[in-house]
Amino acid sequence: RPGLYIVATPIGNLGDITLRAAETLARCDAVACEDTRVTGKLMKHLGLSKPLWRYDDHASEADRARILAAMQEKAVALASDAGTPLVSDPGYRLVRDARTAGLAITALPGACAAIAGLTLSGLPNDRFLFAGFLPNKDKARREALNDAAQMSATAIFYETAPRLVKSLETIAEMLPDREVSVARELTKLHEECRTGRAEDLAAHYSACPAKGEIVLMIGPGAAAPVGDQDIDALLADALRSAKPS
Ligand code: SAM
Q1: Which end of the chain is less crowded, N or C, counting CB atoms within 10 A of the terminal residue's CB?
Q2: Burial level of 162, CB count in 10 A (0-12/13-18/19+)?
Q3: Which residue from 112, 118, 214 has its CB within 8 A of the most atoms of ligand 1, so it is best to mutate?
Q4: Tetrapyrrole methylase domain location, by residue (predicted)?
Q5: Which of 9, 84, 88, 182 has most ligand 1 atoms within 8 Å of CB, for mutation?
Q6: In this predicted complex, what is the ipTM?
């Protein structure tokens, strides 16, 4: 059936492709993908050969218009280099435009590093905030950490190996009491997940520099943030208990 098929692919272990994803890649007319070499390898692993159309962050309006026009008659799969398309990966505008054009769209869920990291971490998972990549620059990184710290939820960030220690040091300084987790190389041979205080994790990764791909998570604060109404109630309580009997 013509339309857009958003296909999640593995984040390391090729065994994590779903049956439905493999079936869709086998049946579709073309695959729009970030890097044709990366998706080409996956297709080869599955014994498939399909036209691969480059669709990455640099795609122009014209590229998108071409893919949208093709989707009127063809089944087009959208895949990224790893994991779930649109999760810190291209596809948002394509999906929006396909929706506006009234095209058939379906999502084929599968691997996602953020969710795999969260489930492994042992951090509270009833409420979580996925906040994408931690910014590179110190000021923006502190702002992102501060924003995340305001929520009573576990915050999930994508991080790169060279920046990990600096980020952990900043977290240790800003949020010294929080539980932090580093999940690395998920689903791969050297998968590792360490949960503890940011200061201890910073010391560990200074001594043994982390390699590979990383999900960095910060647990929620011990108490929920106090809102204005709570402050009023707390003040009233304090005044009541301060009255002489
Ligand atoms: N769309 C992907 C997903 O669903 O997770 C994420 C793509 S984003 C461009 C790539 C980042 O995701 C990496 O820099 C890393 O932070 C994280 N990541 C991807 N694969 C990972 C893995 N196997 N282990 C840990 N983190 C991973």
Answers
A1: C
A2: exposed
A3: 214
A4: 4-201
A5: 88
A6: 0.99
Mean pLDDT by 10 residues, the chain (245 residues): 98 98 98 98 98 95 96 98 98 97 98 98 98 97 96 97 98 98 98 98 98 98 62 66 55
Q: Is 214 exposed, middle or buried (0-12, 13-18, 19+ CB in 10 A)?
A: buried
CB 117 within 8 A of CB 183: yes
Q: Is the CB–ligand 1 distance for residue 202 below 6 Å?
A: no
